[in-house]
Amino acid sequence: MTATAAVGRPAAVRPAKARRNRENRNRSLLGLLAWLCGLVFFLPFAWMVLTSLHSESSAATNPPSLGASLTLQGYREFFGATTGVSPWPPLINSLTASIGSTVLVLLLAIPAAYALSIKPVRKWTDVMFFFLSTKMLPVVAGLLPLYLIAKYAGMLDDIWLLVILYTSMNLPIAVWMMRSFLAEVPKEIMEAAAIDGAGLLVTLRRIVAPVAAPGIAATALIAFIFSWNELLYAEVLTGVVAGTAPVFLTSFVTSQGLFLAKVCAAAVCISLPVLIAGFAAQDKLVQGLSLGAVK
Amino acid sequence: MSTLSTPRQQRFSWSARQGSPGAAARPRGAWARRGPLLPALIFMIVVTQLPFVGTLVISFMRWNALDPGDRGFGGLSNYRNAFSDPTLRSAIVTTVVLTATVVLVSLVLGLGLALLLDRRFRGRGIVRTMLITPFLVVPVASALLWKHAIYNASYGLLDGVLTWVWSLFGSGHAPQPDWLSVVPLISVEASLVWQWTPFMMLILLAGLQSRALDVVEAARVDGASSWQVFRYLTFPHLRRYLELAALLGSVYVVQNFDAVFTLTSGGLGTANLPYKVYETFYQGHDYGEASADGVIVVACSLLIATFALRTVSSLFREETL
């Protein structure tokens, strides 16, 4: 008791400085911990990139060969160096499906969000919850009828079928996001503009668009990422012609021979568009993931 | 968020204004308001609701693609088959265990990471970027990465590290488990936790950054400890964000197909409901029973969805109404 009091006294004399020191130490320790966690979560990705740059024989070693010489062979294989199978058709399919559905989502969601926020229809909350509830309906629940309809309509293995389905997958999210953005448009200014005789187009361009533009960007980003990543619809409803990049990736694993570097290279290439879009717009990502509830 | 205007007030002022021009003008005005909404609404009903009605109808039919002659009304036989099918029961249990584990673990990790990232330190931007990387890897790509480059028994990273660590102590006999067959479900869960923790972290971090700092400052001045600040200020504020993150996460994870399909192909007790429906439909070609499975999946998701909608709705009321 006396010992601790004696030891404690110098600190008590200058409590502020001691406390600041302790806080500083805590802060740098927690910073270190954050770095450690970041590295742990990043490690599998880093390992994927490193493996993709190894030759097949040095990629499949035990223990792992960290210092093996780097090569682009995996990437050459991905682009069909030996098999002659080009990755471009599936990549272009994925681009068509993702961009096509994103454009369609925006075309449908923006007017809908306008009708739900700026000049809201009656019972607009019910409409909002209808949209959200469709998102809770599992994809598999409607898969079989969609397959049968597509089969009889001759739309199996057709990329436009995926454009339509991806639109339905992302539209609820987009409506929710766009509504939360359009709800921020200042009503007083719109009313003032109406009194000054501004037409609908002028109002939209001068007052609504500046507020809505970041929202449109966030919505487009989320719709693009989810469409690009989708596997189940693509796996069931497409074949050789309209297969998307994720489907192509699953076909990359072979039962014979070494394929690790090749698969990692393919995984890196196919994730690249999403990685770039996501890193470039980290803050938009949060808004999108929370349906616009978090800004 | 506090800048959001109050739509309820607008709605009331709108209906007051709308009431005056007289009954004749109202229908046209109402349609002008509804007009922009209709394309999206009709599109969603046609593309998502009608197929489900189809599933419902087919679930009462005898319909196996391999036996096209025998097609007709089957009554409840598909449901009877589905419920007496032990694989469906195990798929339900797997789905519940998988979803609950992944959501809870990634929520706790996400909360920890969000609290770490909420303070200032050197290189915070870089750490944040590293942490969200798993979420931006295409899910199939990440499943393939875990299956072949990490879990593989002969050259995967995990067993490779074990060999390396054992050899440091001069032993040549490191354990080399085949992770996907020893702990299949945990392996699937681990890869999904890796993928979903950033999602939870991002939402919780946004929640942390939206709390009123002056209150925290005042509490500190009054001598509150860090734990007290967390327990009585931060946590209550975060509660809604935790609910939002958990429920959105559940909606996505309960539907997970990519990881199960790629990592284990539904083997060794890892088949969840979406995979089970896919299998019945794609490999068994029994359309009737696949549809009955699908209807059961919907019934299960309704359970989650009800909670999810209620939470989002309370969030929605507090924030915007």
Question: Can you walk me through this structure?
Answer:
The complex is a heterodimer of chains A (295) and B (321). Chain A has 295 residues and is mainly α. Chain A has two domains: 15-78, no CATH class; 88-289, MetI-like fold (Orthogonal Bundle), CATH 1.10.3720.10. Helices cover 74% and strands 0% of the residues of chain A. Chain A is built from 14 helices and no strands. In chain A, helix 1 (2-13) packs across helix 2, helix 5 (88-117) packs parallel to helix 8 and helix 5 crosses helix 10 (200-229). The model of chain A is unreliable at 1-9 (pLDDT under 50). Chain B is mainly alpha-helical and 321 residues long. Chain B folds into two domains: 1-58, no CATH class; 77-320, Orthogonal Bundle (MetI-like fold). Helices cover 74% and strands 1% of the residues of chain B. Chain B has helices at 7-19, 25-34, 38-58, 77-84, 86-117, 124-136, 139-150, 157-168, 179-182, 184-209, 213-221, 226-254, 258-263, 273-282, 287-320, and strands at residues 61-62, 72-73. Chain B is flat and about 75 Å long. Chains A and B meet through helix 2, helix 5, helix 6, helix 7 and helix 8 of A and helix 1, helix 2, helix 3, helix 5 and helix 6 of B. Chain B: Pfam families: BPD_transp_1.
Concise overview:
With 295 residues, chain A is mainly alpha-helical. Chain A is built from 14 helices and no strands.
Q: How do the strands and helices of this protein lay out in sequence?
A:
The complex is a heterodimer of chains A (295) and B (321).
Chain A: H1 2-13, H2 15-52, H3 56-59, H4 73-78, H5 88-117, H6 124-136, H7 143-152, H8 159-182, H9 187-195, H10 200-229, H11 232-237, H12 245-250, H13 260-280, H14 282-289
Helix pairs in contact in A: 1-2, 2-13, 5-8, 5-10, 6-8, 8-10, 10-14
Chain B: H1 7-19, H2 25-34, H3 38-58, E1 61-62, E2 72-73, H4 77-84, H5 86-117, H6 124-136, H7 139-150, H8 157-168, H9 179-182, H10 184-209, H11 213-221, H12 226-254, H13 258-263, H14 273-282, H15 287-320
Antiparallel strand pairs in B: 1-2
Helix pairs in contact in B: 3-15, 4-15, 5-10, 5-12, 6-10, 10-12, 11-12, 12-15, 14-15
